[in-house]
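seq:
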Amino acid sequence: MTTLNRPGTPDGHVCGIDTAMEVIGGKWKVLILWALHEQPCRRFGELRRLLPGITEKVLASHLRELEADGVVRRVSYDEV
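struct:
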């Protein structure tokens, strides 16, 4: 993701909106967050079914990025 370098701040961000848009920008991240908003605890396969058109690779990648940014938390459960 590219950041516009704007004068006045060392990281190029003028306000929190710039940072928020970097974290949740794009088509899939917003849809992932919406699905998690409706039911906070969802399995990977359930998210995959709720988001037709997303590939497993993209979903996994975006979930990792959201986790790294502190937006979502991953919990591993033993298989039943």
